[in-house]
Structures are given as C-alpha cells and as structure tokens.
Amino acid sequence: MTTSTRGATKAPAVLVLEDGRIFRGRAYGAVGETFGEAVFSTGMTGYQETLTDPSYDRQIVVATAPQIGNTGWNDEDDESRRIWVSGYVVRDPARVPSNWRAKRSLDDELVAQDIVGISGIDTRALTRHLRERGSMRAGIFSGEAIAGESELVARVQAQPHMKGASLYEEVATKETYVVPAVGEKKFTVAAIDLGIKGMTPHRMAQRGIEVHVLPATASVDEVYAVEPDGVFFSNGPGDPATADGPVALMTAVLERKTPLFGICFGNQILGRALGFGTYKLKYGHRGINQPVQDRTTGKVEVTAHNHGFAVDAPLDKVSETKFGRAEVSHVCLNDDVVEGLQLLDQPAFSVQYHPEAAAGPHDAAYLFDRFVSLMEGQRA
Questions:
Q1: To the nearest whole number, what is the mean pLDDT of the chain?
Q2: Where are the alpha helices (DSSP H) in 239-313?
Q3: Which of 44, 131, 216, 359 has the fewest Cβ atoms surrounding its Cβ within 10 A?
Q4: In 199-279, alpha helices (H)
Q5: Could you say which of 79, 327, 339, 356 is catalytic?
Q6: Does 354 qualify as catalytic in the annotation?
Q7: Left if phi > 0, otherwise alpha if psi is -120 to 50, otherwise beta: which for 312?
Q8: Across the strands, what pairs with 116?
C-alpha cells in the first residue's frame, strides 16, 4: 500500500521495521508513506529490471550496492508495464544519471510512478539486520506522514504478512496476448502469467517459439485451445501455498504429459503438483550473483534470483510421485536450497531462479534450449 505526493524529494524520511528498528534519512522518489516486506537485493546493476519485476509486488527493496541511479531510466529495459516494488531503499543516490540511453533520472521515475523511497541510510547495517532477523514488515514515511515512533511501529505491525499472501492474480495480465517467434516459427507455447517478466517470452521467441501469454486464471481448455507444443509457468509474487488454481492447472498439464517448464513461482507450483511442500526462507535469495549447481551436469552457474519461498524436497534421493520419479536437479551452493526439479519419466522440469536474466548473468540461458529439446523429443 502506498500513499504519496510528488516532489519535495529532500524531505526527512524514516524506515520503520516491525521489530522497532528505525533508520532515518531523506526522501527518495515520491513523498508519503508505503508498507511492504523489507528484503534486500545484492545486484550491482539492473535496478530498472528489479523495480519492474512483478515478483517484487508488496516488497520494500533494499539495494545493497552503495550507489544507485547512475544509469538513469530508459524506455527499453522495463520488465513489465510498471514499477511493482512498494518502496525503495538506497544509500547514495546518483546526483546526475550518466548513460546515453537514459531518458530521465531514477528519482524522476519513482516520483512519476508514486513510489515512496528513502536514501542516505546505512544500508549495510540494514542488510545485516535483515540477515540476522529475517525479512520483515516495514514502512517508509516521509514529509507529513512522519509521526511518533510508537505510532509508526504500530502501523507497520498492523500490516499483513507475506506468508499467506495471494498476489499472483494482482500482477498477471487480464487478457491473453501473443509474442511472435523471431524468424521461422518452430513451436507454440502457452505461458501462464503469474507475474511474468518481459524478457522471458522474448528469450523463447528468439528460439522460434510463438508465445501465447495467458492470465493466471486460465482454464485447461483455454491453455489447449492454442494447441501448445509446451506449457510454461512463470515467476510471480506471494506465497505458493495460496496458489491452488495454478497447481490444479499444472496437474492437468502433467496428466497430459505436455512438455512443461517453470521458473521461480512456477518451480514452487511444480513442487506442490508433485506432492512436495513449500516454506518461507528467512531472508530469501535476491540478486544476480547466486551460485547454483546443475546436478545433471555438475556445472556451477552464477544466477539471478528473486524468491522468498522454496520447495521442500529431498536432496539425497529420487522421489516417487503420481507422475513418476522426480529429483532435485539444481541446488544453491550457499545454503542447499532446492533450485530446480525434474521428472524422470515425462518431459517436465523447473528452476527456482531466472534464466532470462536481464540484466544478466546469462549462465542459465541454456534452460530455454532444454525446453526446446523437450518439445522436439515429444514431437518426434
């Protein structure tokens, strides 16, 4: 939730955490108040893609990089139709953007989209606090929204938790649209939008795939009306435990043995469809420098992440499911969190991270080729 006014970006501001910790700084972007879950992102670049990623809905994002805004804001790198973060926290905002593609400053864009932020605080101390205590509810207050500390803490504590939040329908498209294949069309994919990033269908289109992006509430009949060679489930925000509709849809796709690929929220949906549970991580994985091992090849990839929930599946054995054998295909080398699943008896797999990875890294782009291989094998 955000209430704001434009301008006056030098006004005093405070960041209030639900455990009572308070950081004082200056307003950045719009002035007013906003609430969300405070999380940190370790990316050194790509803030425009981060801010427009629908998976960050209802989250206040803390940038761990000390200076943000150097490259300004352009009209090409948005991952969706708007900024989705509920608030933005930076230490040292760039005074002047310096990039030939920039159309305006980051501060200008935050004001234009009524995103309340705060600058000039010790983001290193804040990040350490969140690493020790975990992601938590927070609020940013600036200008006339600032009140007594006890009142602000109480208002933050009155906000809903991320656990149990159903958000994917809020960010998904309401109407089906098509991203045409680049060059010769080889396959048709039905992509279920749970908070899809724009680069994802683009990566598929580059491989000759015509992508039909469907709403999160799409029915089985609507999915198969496009005569898909494969079905894709996207990233998205919120608690996967609330996503009974997408789980039912994925179950129907698995029953038909259609080639299936899921990322991020889609990985959690596959986990649930296979009978595994999900759980909330203490502070999540967010950034573009997370080490993941592809256990099918032994290769280690540097990957882009944005998830606060994970699949609870055994790392040390092959599991029996109603769709055959399943195993953990990818694992995070920092903390052994499940980062991918695959079925061994039919063409379905998923990863917890972002292989489309704008603005990088691109180590995991091969996963789109793996999806193509599954569709080729099914066609053959």
A1: 95
A2: 244-255, 265-273
A3: 131
A4: 199-205, 220-224, 244-255, 265-273
A5: 356
A6: yes
A7: beta
A8: 29, 87
Q: Which three-class secondary structure state does DSSP give residue 106?
A: helix
CB-based contact 327:342 (threshold 8 Å): yes
In sequence order, which ranges of 263-330 are alpha helices (DSSP H)?
265-273
Compute φ and ψ for 242, nearest 5 degrees: -90, -5
Cα separation, 261 vs 178, in Å, equals 18
DSSP assignments along 111-122, one per residue: HHTT-EEEESS-
Contact 15, 125 (CB under 8 A): no
Question: Which residues lie below 8 Å from residue 158, measured CB to CB, with a gap of 6+?
Answer: none
Distance CA 203, CA 265 (A): 18
Cβ(69)–Cβ(94) below 8 Å: yes
Structure tokens given for 195: 């908070």
pLDDT value of position 9: 46
Amino acid at 2: T
Half-sphere exposure of 330 (CA within 13 A, CB side): 28
Q: Which of 285, 305, 307, 354 is catalytic?
A: 354
178: which strand partners?
A: 212
pLDDT digits (tens, 9 = 90+) for 19-70: 999 999 999 999 999 999 999 999 888 899 999 999 999 999 999 999 999 9
User: Could you tell me how far CA 357 lies from the centroid of its own chain?
Assistant: 11
Question: Which amino acid, 228?
Answer: P
To the query of whether residue 356 is one of the catalytic residues in this protein, the response is yes
The burial of 288, by beta-carbon neighbours within 10 Å (0-12 exposed, 13-18 middle, 19 or more buried), is given as buried
Contact 34, 4 (CB under 8 A): yes
Of these residues, 210, 212, 264, 332, which one is catalytic?
264
pLDDT(3) > 90: no
Name the strand (E) or helix (H) holding 375. Answer: helix 366-379
Active site residue 332: no
Q: How far apart are CA 371 and CA 365, in angstroms?
A: 11
Burial 1-37 (b: 16+ CB within 10 A, else e): ebebbeeebebebbbbbbeebebebbbbbbbbbbbbb
Q: How far is CA 340 from CA 106, 262, 294, 314, in A?
A: 34, 9, 8, 12
Closest CA to 145 of 87, 229, 188, 192: 87
Q: Are 374 and 364 in contact (CB under 8 A)?
A: no
